[in-house]
Amino acid sequence: MVQHNLLISNCCRLRSVMLCGVMALNLIAAQATVAQTTPAKEAAPAVPVAAQPVVAGRAEQYPPSPGFFRGNRPTSLDVGGVSDSGFYLSLWRFIPILGAFFGWAWVGKWVNQDSLSLKVNSEYWNSAVLLGGLAGLFVILTMSGFSLGFVLMLTLQGVPLGLYIRERNSCVPESARLLTKKHIKSVAFRVLARLGVSIGGKKMKQQLLGPDIEFIGKTSTGRRDTSRTSQVENSRGFLAAKELVYDALIKRATDIHLEPKEDELQVRMRIDGVMLAVEPFDRALGDNVINIFKILGAMDITEKRKSLDGSFRAVTEGREIDFRVATQGTRDGEKMTLRILDQSQSVSTLDDLGFRKQLEDQIKDIIHQPHGLMLVCGPTGAGKSTTLYACLNSIDSFQQNIITIEDPVEYKMENVTQIEINTKAGQTFANSLRSVLRQDPDIVMIGEIRDGETANIACQAANTGHMVFSTVHANDSITALFRMIDLGVDVSMLSSSLSAILAQRLARRLCPDCKEAYTPKPEFLKKANLPAEKIDKLYHPPKEGENASCPTCAGMGYRGRIGVYELLVITDRMRDLIRDKAALSALKAEARKAGMLYMQEEGLRLVVKGITSIDELLRVVK
Questions:
Q1: Residues 127, 233: one domain?
Q2: CA-closest candidate to residue 525, choices 621, 614, 606
Q3: Domain enclosing residue 145, as ranges
């Protein structure tokens, strides 16, 4: 028994000796490894075997680390090899990814706003930019190589943007295109200017800092005032004012409405007679823009409750544009309306107004009469003044003394005396007309007949050997006749002086590149008194979204406008009915006998020809 216990004891001792030997060999190997990888001056002192902790007879010593670590590469090394400490997020890689993400978000917002304003297939391009950005994020988060993944992410985000810019540049004028040589140069000069670095003279500064447009201020008497222009050049909001006006000119707008809201300034433009909203200003910037226009128009910027009037001028691309400014105090602040009078867009002759041949011949016979009164009626914005200017252009101004009285003068005409009334100075239509009749005129144009005094003087001038053109607000030609009677004109004098009344509206033209044909219903043709056997198709604009990429109309379906007319020629029988104060129905019946067509009938002729749509005709002619 004793021998057996002694044998067991000797075995345990032998086992302990073997374990100590193995530990010694491992320690020697570890020290050798450290000695090879660590400089001599940094060699760690040998650790005695006795200092190693022993748990349950086993040393707490492990083989050296194979070199794996967590997160970023550590900056320090331990004696036993590479440290296992590290940060999971790489900041120098995360920051550019975050910047690319926010850049993608900003690009998406800009593409959405720009495509909506230009009507360039907004849904398609928004989807393309969104999918490109998501694909880029997926690539950078899944690829092992950061550099290649980042380049691919920027490529996936940039390709849809580049394709969109190429399409939108084809829809806008050259001066409004992006990423062109001129645009890049403009951006560079603008950034340098904000940093205080001025390059080039004043002309180059005007061209590069914003759109190529120059404002010209006016005094209260309408004369040019360059000092007002210099006052606003360094104002906050000057660049926004230039971009607003330039954008309106590109879109062929006739009016700009700046309407204050609680926290923003809403901007709307009237394009082809229809109001369209554009990107608003924040309230502070919007108030600065309004003040800039008021300074240019010689208006009091401290007065925000009373209505004010003014005017200024702008020069761009070699043409001059006049602006009429009107303000009015509202509950939320000061509202401003700018009427755009573009000299290059004025109509030169009657041939450009869209009259049918018979109607044009009748009007030419009327305006070349030696005396008489021709009235043009319609609501505001119906093109009445444009028609009168076209009539005056059809008359030889070198052989005739032509004088106009306007409020204000909208378009300049060569060899024509144009007078602008000034109600503040007591110069009204009636007073000016009395003075003009002493200037030996052959043709007199009165901007508008507003009161009985002006109406009576105009009829007297027509009866005393002058040809008088004027406008009056009325819905149709017969209503305009009774409007003159309501102003207090004697029916005998009115019947002898009146030559014709032209009522008109302006309807939008269908875009010739994207309008669509359809087969009308027989019920509609019968109701409109149109021959069903001769009309097999009509036209209408494409459905919303289908023509978003049309460069001609910018996705609106319409471009330009054409007149819809109703001409009432005063015959001898009609004069007798006016003297007898005949009923409205009798006057209409006599006009129909003389061959007058109503505006609805003239408009249907345009619909059948495919010039406009039935919906547009019903919008302007009731």
A1: no
A2: 614
A3: 96-171
